[in-house]
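Following up on my earlier thread - several people asked me to post the actual chain instead of describing it. Fair enough. Here it is, all 64 residues.
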Amino acid sequence: MKATSSSASSTIWRNRATRLLPRVNLLLDDTLADRCDEICEQVEVAQDVARFLHQHGAKLTKLE
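Reply from S.P.:
Thanks for posting it. Predicted structure:
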């Protein structure tokens, strides 16, 4: 029984490693935090634009 348990444990660790390996590059990427900050700023701008259009969309349509 112990061999089966050890084999199952090995398989679990192998599966976890297989899922984590593609993400190691992300963890090692020094520019990731800066890129994340840029994306957050872009999201803020997009939300501001959406809010503006929601508030003033009807007026803008009349001006066209």
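The chain has a mean pLDDT of 89. That should answer part of your original question.
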